Q: What sequence folds into this?
């Protein structure tokens, strides 16, 4: 018995599911993006207070580290979904057809992205669990008490990347079996990336 391509109804359902997965990272990525502004403001305030008024608080300084880590870790999957991560795409963007790019993305996701994210989760779990057990806080007097929450980002980041990976597998898989509308965003992203490099 041979496998048949998914029906139009099945494809539409899977595509909606992929969009739902991506919506999680889209919402989170756009939300934490505001931390970049807050980092600048707090850093400016730290400098003004220190050099103009000889005042300073460890907790305020550590908050910049917390915001930077949160921005980097929680927006990684959003950036990946938008094609913003650095990669060598001299062949991918310029010479590969949309179908070839779909194969590269699908195989790269299955053989590289997913295994690495699972490895990070497994390697980090005990480390984070121990921090939660101790309710680990700052080693500095007057520092922030939530180091255990900060370390939890080590689990959230690969989890969000796996969500994006699942969306990519669905989108590229659907595209390869004939669902052309599965990859409009990614095709446009690749074309824009190539155009930007040509003018860069």
A:
């Amino acid at each position: 018995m041979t496998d048949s391509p998914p029906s139009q109804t099945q494809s539409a359902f899977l595509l909606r599911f992929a969009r739902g997965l991506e919506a999680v990272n889209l919402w989170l990525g756009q939300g934490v993006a505001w931390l970049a502004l807050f980092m600048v403001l707090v850093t400016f305030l730290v400098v003004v207070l220190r050099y103009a008024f000889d005042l300073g608080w460890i907790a305020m300084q550590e908050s910049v580290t917390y915001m930077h880590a949160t921005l980097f870790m929680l927006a990684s999957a959003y950036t990946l979904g938008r094609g913003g991560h650095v990669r060598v795409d001299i062949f991918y963007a310029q010479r590969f057809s949309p179908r070839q790019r779909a194969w590269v993305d699908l195989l790269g996701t299955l053989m590289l992205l997913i295994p690495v994210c699972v490895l990070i989760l497994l390697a980090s779990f005990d480390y984070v669990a121990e921090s939660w057990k101790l309710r680990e806080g700052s080693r500095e007097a007057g520092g922030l008490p939530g180091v255990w929450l900060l370390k939890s980002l080590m689990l959230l980041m690969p989890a969000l990347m796996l969500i994006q990976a699942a969306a990519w597998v669905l989108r590229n898989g659907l595209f390869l079996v004939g669902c052309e509308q599965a990859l409009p965003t990614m095709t446009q992203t690749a074309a824009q990336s190539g155009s930007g490099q040509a003018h860069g």
